[in-house]
Specification:
mainly alpha; ABC transporter involved in vitamin B12 uptake, BtuC; single chain; disordered C terminus; 2 domains
């Protein structure tokens, strides 16, 4: 007969396996739970607002990592697509009275549609073409929002209603917290599935993947579209969190911010960019007195990471875990295991 202990052990293993497919290890669950209580543990409004911005950029970086890390396509128009999501939601509310909650999703789908079009037009070629076209589209969107003053008010800024009738950060924290967790779970589920295997194969060698039956065009477009959806979703949140939109949101410098966070976190990890956001965003927030020179530091930091430690935080973590597991294996190896 199967013992109760064996059944319990089997249940625990199955539970860990199922949670692992969604990237929810005990450590990840613990960190998310701790983060969820942060508004009750932090009394400083400024720090809480900084956490909201960190979650926002962490979510953006996870979406960016999906394309940059898995299919090797760096979306240089990422900030433009984020801005598209923001303006879509804001204009739907301002002109048609559509709820910002619905508008946020509409902005995400609008960005995804643009991502789909960019992918269909360019992803048959090298990933650089997609990156450049996305960058051009971002610049065009920025120019349009600047010039269409009757619709967007241009550089004067478009006033946007907030999600809540309060300027305090606590309710907004939980909105972006939910967006972040859902994005994390979906992306980890995708990357741990057969779809993720196809993405990884394309990122390593597209021709070899083609010979194995992977359609490069199909899977690259799917990947790019999902990534753009995340950008638009975060843009919708940004609009109803900040309360004002200017064309500057679509500036390439914001893409650079997301790119640096993604690369420091470690490409092809999803969780690395999220963790990196909580390290990078607060540091550079305190460097705001440097004005535009701050972005020079972003660039230098990116160069240093790519030269000296291209794997980022995720690779360093895996390296430490590998050492720990090796020591554990030696301790429980045949020499020290009486049941071997």
């Amino acid at each position: 007969m199967i013992s109760e202990k064996s059944l319990e052990t089997g249940f625990v293993k199955n539970l860990k396996h199922n949670l692992g497919n969604f990237g929810l290890s005990p450590v990840a669950i613990g960190l998310f739970v701790l983060l969820g209580f942060a508004p009750y543990l932090i009394g400083d409004e400024y720090i809480l607002r900084l956490l909201v911005i960190s979650l926002l950029f962490g979510t953006l970086a996870m979406g960016f990592d999906l394309s940059a890390g898995y299919i090797d396509v760096a979306n240089w128009g990422y900030a433009g697509l984020m801005g598209l999501g923001a303006y879509t939601s804001a204009l739907l509310l301002t002109n048609l009275g559509i709820s910002p909650w619905i508008g946020t999703l509409a902005g995400a789908f609008m960005a995804a549609i643009f991502g789909l079009l960019i992918g269909v037009l360019t992803l048959k070629m090298d990933g650089m073409f997609a990156a450049i076209l996305a960058w051009f589209i971002g610049l065009i969107l920025m120019a349009l929002t600047t010039s269409l003053t009757g619709l967007t008010r241009g550089a004067l800024g478009l006033n946007v209603d907030l999600y809540f009738n309060t300027g305090w950060s606590k309710p907004y924290f939980y909105v972006i917290f939910v967006i972040c967790i859902v994005t994390y779970i979906v992306l980890r589920r995708v990357t741990n599935s057969n779809l993720g295997l196809a993405f990884s194969a394309l990122g390593q060698d597209a021709e070899a993947a083609r010979t194995c039956g992977v359609d490069p065009m199909k899977y690259k477009v799917i990947n790019f579209t999902i990534s753009c959806f995340v950008a638009g979703l975060c843009g919708g949140f940004y609009a109803h969190f900040m309360g004002i939109l200017t064309p500057d949101i679509m500036s390439t410098k914001h893409t650079v911010e997301v790119l640096v966070i993604a690369y420091i976190g470690g490409r092809r990890s999803i969780w690395g960019p999220l963790l990196a956001a909580f390290l990078v965003v607060p540091v550079f927030e305190y460097l705001n007195f440097l004005m535009e020179f701050k972005y020079v530091i972003y660039g230098l930091l990116l160069i240093l990471v790519m030269i000296f430690y291209p794997g980022g935080i995720a690779h360093f973590y895996n390296y430490i875990v590998g050492i720990f597991n090796e020591k554990k294996r030696k301790l429980t190896g045949p020499e020290s295991n009486p049941f071997a």
